[in-house]
């Protein structure tokens, strides 16, 4: 082990490492503490993430409108309160615990102190990415599926309601016509 000074910093350099093969750049295998540098084009990934996030948030407004429009005016505040309680009960309270457990599965190295396991120090970034975005994809797919089922149900109910109204209007028109015909036959009006 030797020390090197780079940019006013003292860096430990581990030499004679048998597990590191020699390369063209370094004839003597060596290692330094810390993570390896990564060469990646971050802007493209951020753009794709922003695009997917924007697409995923498109379900927010239809969900709010669904909650408000599917009930009578007097029940709207009750529905919004109930939806808020359900969201807290099934999403906001268990959510961090579930996501933490899922993300912990991508951990490669845990910090240990006094024989106790601590926080994760190093993650497998590929596994982390797959777990995180895979779960978001699954949850958003379930969300869109539920909204699609609700939309189909509403469209079918509206079609049935329109058909019922058309039949009702037709029957009322027939009854009105019969009353008018019967009234004209039974009664004769005279004007004075």
Description:
The protein is of the alpha+beta class and 192 residues long. The chain has a domain at 1-35. It is built from 5 helices and 5 strands. The protein has helices at residues 42-56, 60-69, 76-92, 95-104, 125-186; strands spanning 2-6, 9-15, 30-31, 107-113, 116-123. It has a 3-stranded antiparallel β-sheet, with no helix packed on it. Strand 4 and strand 5 (116-123) form a beta hairpin. The longest helix is centred in the last third of the chain and has 62 residues, at 125-186. The radius of gyration is 34 Å and the shape is elongated. The mean pLDDT is 79. This is Putative solute carrier organic anion transporter family member 1A4. The chain crosses the membrane at residues 42-66, 78-102, 137-158. Keywords: Membrane, Transmembrane, Transmembrane helix.
């Amino acid at each position: 082990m030797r020390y090197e000074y780079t940019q006013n910093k003292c860096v430990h350099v581990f030499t004679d490492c048998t597990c590191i093969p020699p390369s063209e750049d370094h004839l003597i295998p060596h290692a330094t503490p810390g993570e390896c540098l990564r060469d990646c084009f971050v802007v493209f990934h951020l753009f794709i993430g922003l695009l997917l996030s924007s697409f995923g948030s498109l379900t927010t407004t239809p969900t709010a409108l669904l909650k408000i429009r599917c009930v009578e005016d007097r029940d709207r505040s009750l529905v919004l309160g109930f939806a808020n309680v359900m969201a807290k009960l099934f999403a906001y309270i268990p959510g961090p615990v579930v996501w933490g457990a899922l993300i912990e599965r991508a951990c490669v190295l845990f910090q240990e102190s006094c024989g106790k396991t601590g926080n994760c120090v190093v993650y497998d970034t590929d596994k982390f990415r797959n777990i995180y975005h895979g779960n978001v994809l699954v949850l958003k797919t379930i969300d869109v599926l539920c909204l699609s089922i609700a939309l189909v149900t509403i469209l079918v109910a509206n079609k049935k309601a329109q058909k019922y109204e058309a039949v009702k209007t037709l029957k009322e028109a027939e009854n009105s016509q019969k009353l008018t015909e019967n009234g004209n036959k039974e009664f004769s009006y005279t004007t004075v």
